[in-house]
Structure formats: structure tokens, C-alpha cells
């Protein structure tokens, strides 16, 4: 039996083929379109999802059932002595706190380690890669959980939204504000810092929004995360709900702005896209975890 297995949910943005290659088990997160339940990468494609959004269908997110989570763990414990389970940030979903409660059950206690380090999408993807490196370095599951949670503040991501429509539908802004913003071509920029999405800035047009995000990222690298940046212990990330060509252009802009730095880029998970709509672009960074 292997020592430590790594598990997550589909908010991690890792493509199924990569997850299989890395040996990471991914629990599909459910969401509802009207009254029908879907699972990302299981029974709906991205193009089908965005078509439903464009038709005005009501989309809501949901947690996986406790039974689905526990069955995943049981499957893992048949192969591994311990499991590191890293779900979507508790600041964005109740699924993490549910998992923590389930991990206290007798059959999982001391065997399943639920990590809550405030991540979603590409930052969560990056943390999973960090986890695999820490396992290779010989750290225990308990030590890895502590390392990742101790460094959860050492990350930030900015997300520029192409349309205000879906923020309005989700009740995050009023219909009046959305109408005015659309007329003025306002593109809101959201910020994910300590596990919560919050408003950061408003820009006139996506071109301006991209520049604002690049500048914010530059400030964070040179000021907030200066030590890690100077020691080359920081990762750049990107995320997108735009088409493939727009995404490639965005990554190229980031690489040109920060020469010599590689960019890990993912599609935004669909459960996040239901709030951002199509065309959102993000940039972020994550410090390499400090090993004990």
C-alpha cells in the first residue's frame, strides 16, 4: 500500500488527463441549470455550458453529497495509508467545512487530512503540485497540511470580468448598476486573497482591465511578495473563461510583462464561470511553500 494519496474537487481546474497522469483523484462538483444537475467534465462540455448561460438559464452551484465525498475517500484508503484532501476554499463554499466534519468520523480520523488554504481554480492547481513535491521530499500528510495552511496568505489572484450580467443574476450587483456599467463599458476586477472573492477595481474596457491587473501583479511581486520574488520562489498563474485564442494572447501578454517567468494557465471551472460568464481573464501568483 502506498503512503499518501492526493484528492481534490473539480474546482481545482486540473484537466482530467493531467489529474490521471499525476495520480490525483478529482471529485466532480455538481451545479444546476434550472432543475437539472450537471457535473463538470462528466456530462456537459464548456461550449454547451456557455450556450445555456447565453440563453438566460438559471445556474446555481452546489456541494457534493457527503456520501460522494466519503466514497471517494474509501476508494483512496483502499490504495493509500493516508489521504490529503484539498477542496475549494471554505470562504467560497461550505463543502470544505463539511469535509472537515466528515474527516472526524471514526473510519477517517487520522487518515484523511482536509487542507483549507483558501484556494480555487489555478491557485488550487498549484497547491496540488506543491503537495506532490512535498510528498516526494518525504513530508508526512500532517506536516504537508500544516505547511500549506501556514502559507495560505502567500497567494493572490485578480480576475477581470467581461460582462456584468452574471454578477447581476447572482445578486452580487443590482440590475441598475449592471445597466449603467454596461453602457459605460465597465469591467470589474475581482480579487481573491485570503479565500474570499472581493471587488478590487473598476475599469473602462477589458484592455484597461488587463493593464490594471498586470500592474497590480507587478506591485505584489515587488512589494507584497518581494522576498519570494527576489529568491525566484514564486509562481505566476493565469485563468480564463475566454476562447482559446484570447487565452493564448493573455498568457503571451503576461509573459511579455514578466520576462523569464513561466505561467501556469487553466480554464476557470464551470462553477466559477456561472458567476463570471464567458470572457473572464485572471492573473495571480503563489509563493513556493516554506518547508520545515
Concise structural overview:
With 292 residues, this protein is of the alpha/beta class.
Which stretches of 5+ consecutive residues score pLDDT under 50? 170-185
Largest sheet: 6 strands, mixed
Order of helices and strands: EHEEEHEHEHEHHEHHEEHHEHEHE
- The amount of helix comes to 40-55%
The radius of gyration over CA amounts to: 19 Å
Number of strands: 13
Anisotropy-based shape: globular
Q: Report the total helices.
A: 12
The strand order across the widest sheet is 10-9-8-13-11-12
Secondary-structure-based class equals: alpha/beta
* Straight-line N-to-C gap: 26 Å
Q: Classify the beta-strand content into a percent band.
A: 25-35%
In round numbers, the mean pLDDT is 86
Structural commentary:
The protein is an alpha/beta fold. The chain is built from 12 helices and 13 strands. The strands form 3 sheets. Strands 10-9-8-13-11-12 form a 6-stranded mixed sheet, sandwiched between helices. The chain has a 4-stranded parallel sheet with strand order 2-1-6-7, sandwiched between helices. The protein has a 3-stranded antiparallel sheet with strand order 4-3-5, with no helix packed on it. α4 links the parallel β6 and β7. The protein is globular and about 55 Å long. The two termini are 26 Å apart. Mean pLDDT is 86; it is low at 170-185.
Amino acid at each position: 500500500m502506498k503512503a499518501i494519496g492526493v484528492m481534490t474537487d473539480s474546482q481545482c481546474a486540473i484537466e482530467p488527463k493531467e489529474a490521471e497522469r499525476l495520480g490525483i483523484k478529482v471529485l466532480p462538483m455538481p451545479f444546476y441549470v434550472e432543475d437539472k444537475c450537471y457535473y463538470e467534465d462528466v456530462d456537459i462540455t464548456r461550449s454547451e455550458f456557455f450556450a445555456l448561460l447565453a440563453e438566460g438559464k438559471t445556474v446555481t452551484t452546489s456541494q457534493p453529497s457527503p456520501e460522494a465525498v466519503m466514497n471517494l475517500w474509501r476508494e483512496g484508503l483502499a490504495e493509500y495509508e493516508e489521504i490529503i484532501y484539498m477542496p475549494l476554499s471554505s470562504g467560497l463554499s461550505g463543502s470544505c467545512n463539511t469535509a472537515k466534519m466528515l474527516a472526524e468520523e471514526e473510519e477517517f480520523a487520522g487518515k484523511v487530512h482536509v487542507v483549507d488554504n483558501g484556494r480555487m481554480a489555478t491557485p488550487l492547481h498549484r497547491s496540488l503540485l506543491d503537495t506532490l513535491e512535498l510528498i516526494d521530499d518525504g513530508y508526512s500528510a500532517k506536516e504537508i497540511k500544516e505547511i500549506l495552511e501556514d502559507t495560505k496568505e502567500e497567494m493572490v489572484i485578480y480576475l477581470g470580468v467581461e460582462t456584468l450580467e452574471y454578477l447581476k443574476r447572482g445578486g452580487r450587483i443590482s440590475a441598475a448598476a449592471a445597466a449603467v456599467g454596461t453602457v459605460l463599458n465597465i469591467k470589474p476586477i475581482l480579487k481573491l486573497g485570503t479565500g474570499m472573492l472581493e471587488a478590487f477595481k473598476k475599469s473602462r474596457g477589458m484592455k484597461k482591465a488587463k493593464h490594471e491587473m498586470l500592474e497590480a501583479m507587478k506591485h505584489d511581486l515587488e512589494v507584497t511578495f518581494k522576498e519570494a520574488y527576489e529568491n525566484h520562489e514564486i509562481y505566476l498563474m493565469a485563468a480564463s473563461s475566454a476562447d482559446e485564442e484570447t487565452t493564448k494572447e493573455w498568457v503571451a501578454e503576461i509573459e511579455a510583462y514578466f520576462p523569464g517567468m513561466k505561467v501556469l494557465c487553466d480554464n476557470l471551472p464551470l462553477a466559477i464561470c456561472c458567476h463570471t460568464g464567458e470572457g473572464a481573464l485572471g492573473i495571480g501568483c503563489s509563493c513556493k511553500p516554506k518547508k520545515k
